Amino acid sequence: MVKAAVLGASGGIGQPLSLLLKTSPLVDTLALYDVVNTPGVAADLSHISSVAKTTGYLPENDGLKEALTGADIVVIPAGIPRKPGMTRDDLFKINASIVRDLVKGIAEHCPKAFVLIISNPVNSTVPIAAEVLKEANVFDPKRLFGVTTLDVVRAETFTQEFSGQKDPSTVQIPVVGGHSGETIVPLFSKATPAFQVPEDKYEALVKRVQFGGDEVVTAKNGAGSATLSMAYAGFRFAVSVIKASKGETGIVEPTFVYLPGVIGGAEIAEATGLEFFSTLVELGKNGAEKAINILEGVTEKEKQLLKACTEGLKGNIEKGVDFIKNPPPK
Ligand code: NAD
Ligand code: LMR
């Protein structure tokens, strides 16, 4: 029996993500938590003739506790999205404390759940979550994931003309690093099946994957950022985690993890000088079973991208850790 909880379930990502989870036969119980509107969202979804029993919770009446108790997997898209002209780091001021408080709830009510963080800036909110779980003595690095699947989905889509696949999702393109601008590093040289990106198209393609989020923010013109593609990506990653937890083998996904706590991660931490990094991770019954180092043998251009990535990511990670270790005055 799988209980999934979505925190931020009434939002632009939360609603379509909850819809996808509701229609999945892998989910038996679906708990929707938000500061607004969850009774309506849950009532609406509950009319769908699928397996999951769906309930909505608000902060009153111990709603967070009720939503989280017994949860096996918690997905967090709570927090504000970008508007044109903003960076993801501009969201830190508001989203850092939202994520901190929700993860405190996880530490208390479902410390063994898989935790999937979507809220931006992911490069900082995942370190925040790790620090909160550490402080509560319940941190299991194998169970905490920053969701970077949208970068992978974009890489698959934007390279379709070169991969030649009718279904672009059949190509595996590792996208490593973090989830923000130059910290996003697509490794086209490691794609399977292999394909060639023409030299004169390479730079623009990399930029499009790195700054794909801006395309959506600009097109939405003040009405938020990617929601539908993110719901698809978040669902795709959640399904992988659930399937692996049920014993399916051979599931490998790029995701942002705490390297020292995952087998194989120390080597990547040493190569990058970073504790958190999105890399290919083999998923298993207990979550992240193994971090796979694919940084060996990358091209010279990819090495340059990785250099810029690690420089930016370092500060983002430190900012998240510092927010918990040296909390700002209230
Ligand atoms: P949104 O404003 O539409 O929805 C956010 C929801 O969070 C709202 O319903 C709001 O009520 C809720 N919320 C706020 N504070 C809360 C709290 N304390 N507890 C529970 N719920 C709370 O925003 P969105 O478009 O759904 O985006 C959500 C977040 O996801 C943003 O930070 C955005 O930047 C991020 N995002 C990440 C990725 C990624 O690839 N990781 C992709 C797209 C968006
Ligand atoms: C994205 O990549 O679409 C998200 O991180 C949202 C954003 O702010 O761009």
TrEMBL record:
Residues 3-146 form the Lactate/malate dehydrogenase N-terminal domain. Residues 148-323 form the Lactate/malate dehydrogenase C-terminal domain. The keyword NAD applies. The active site is at 179 (proton acceptor). It catalyses: (S)-malate + NAD(+) = oxaloacetate + NADH + H(+). GO terms for cellular component: cytosol. Belongs to the LDH/MDH superfamily. MDH type 1 family. PANTHER family: MALATE AND LACTATE DEHYDROGENASE (PTHR11540), MALATE DEHYDROGENASE, MITOCHONDRIAL (PTHR11540:SF16). Homodimer. This is malate dehydrogenase. It comes from Aspergillus ellipticus CBS 707.79.
